[in-house]
Design a protein that fits this description.
mainly alpha, Ferritin, 5 helices, 0% strand
């Protein structure tokens, strides 16, 4: 597969990951439960690693004409994370955990949709697949915490 431009999609993912990193950081400061606080800070630091890798990929694609995407997708992402951020800043621990799960599911769904684009370079596809797998593992951690396996019940 050639190197087709996907910068706009990657910038959309970058904005989503950046917003969720900040939201998880703020939520971690507000969480009362120690395990939840640890999970939120872990999610935030994991996002930072993903952002660095994504920035490297954007740099490699620099100068390529971006593929046009629907404004509706970008606006939907922005609205979703504005809602999640608002809840994360005022919610109790259980609500924080539910919003983390919703946010992670949303991010996994977005990454899976992007992975379907035939225009992706193999390296970009692998990077997005790793991110999707990492976030899917985050969902497992959230489920464990939610189910009480980590003392949250």
């Amino acid at each position: 597969m050639g190197t087709h431009p996907v910068r706009k999609e990657l910038r959309t993912v970058h904005r989503l990951l950046s917003a969720s990193r900040a939201a998880y950081e703020v939520a971690g400061e507000r969480a009362r439960n120690a395990e939840l606080r640890g999970l939120l800070f872990s999610l935030s630091s994991g996002r930072l690693l993903m952002l660095r890798e994504l920035e490297g990929e954007l740099e490699r694609l620099k100068g390529m004409k971006p593929l046009e995407r629907s404004l509706r997708l970008r606006e939907a992402i922005k609205r979703k994370w504005m809602t999640v951020c608002a809840v994360l800043t005022v919610a109790g621990d259980r609500e924080l955990l539910r919003e983390c799960e919703r946010g992670e599911r949303y991010t996994v769904d977005l990454l899976r949709a992007l992975l379907q684009l035939p225009e992706l370079r193999n390296g970009t596809r692998e990077m997005l697949r790793r991110m999707e797998q990492d976030i899917a593992r985050n969902l497992d951690d959230i489920f464990l915490l939610e189910s009480g396996s980590l003392g949250f019940a």
